[in-house]
Design a protein that fits this description.
4 helices; alpha+beta; single chain; two-stranded antiparallel ribbon; 152 residues; 2 domains; HNH endonuclease; rod-shaped
């Protein structure tokens, strides 16, 4: 029995994978320690796991991604667990998911940005090695320094 699976956009439905394709997928895999799933089925000339089912040719990673997410992947599917060739559905990521993960890691692991010497906000534009966050703060600081010299 197959039913449509909802995607991220409610108006859009993706046809669910047939049960026979899911059975064929799991028949060609082998569980490994650590929750990984190794592909034991056929491979193409590049070493990518493939499955031919009812005149259709599918890569093992794309089937696994569809099983976990209910949507077609965007771009190449790769194992996010770090194990080459893993086809465990929950370990597979497409291009947007990898980009999102990299952006999140940059936020978490990036060194803190220096504070502007004038407005005390993080330097987000201009030169990071500068004492000021942008042109307006540099000009304001210059005018303050000039005004201070004239007053003395």
């Amino acid at each position: 029995m197959t039913t449509p699976v909802m995607t991220a956009t409610p108006a859009e439905t993706v046809q669910a994978l047939p049960d026979s394709l899911i059975t064929a997928f799991y028949a060609r895999t082998e569980p490994l320690p650590g929750g990984h799933l190794a592909w034991t089925g056929a491979r193409d000339g590049h070493g990518v796991g493939v499955l031919t089912h009812r005149r259709g040719r599918y890569t093992a990673a794309r089937i696994g991604f569809r099983l976990a997410n209910g949507t077609d992947p965007v771009g190449p599917v790769k194992a996010g667990c770090g194990m080459s060739g893993c086809v465990e559905p929950t370990h597979l990521d497409d291009r947007p998911r990898r980009a999102r993960d990299r952006a999140a890691l940059r936020i978490v692991l990036a060194p803190p940005r220096p504070l502007c010497a004038f407005c005390e906000e993080p330097v987000t534009s201009g030169r990071v090695d500068s004492a000021y966050c942008g042109k307006s703060c540099r000009q304001k600081a210059y005018y303050w320094r000039v005004a201070g010299r004239r007053a003395s």
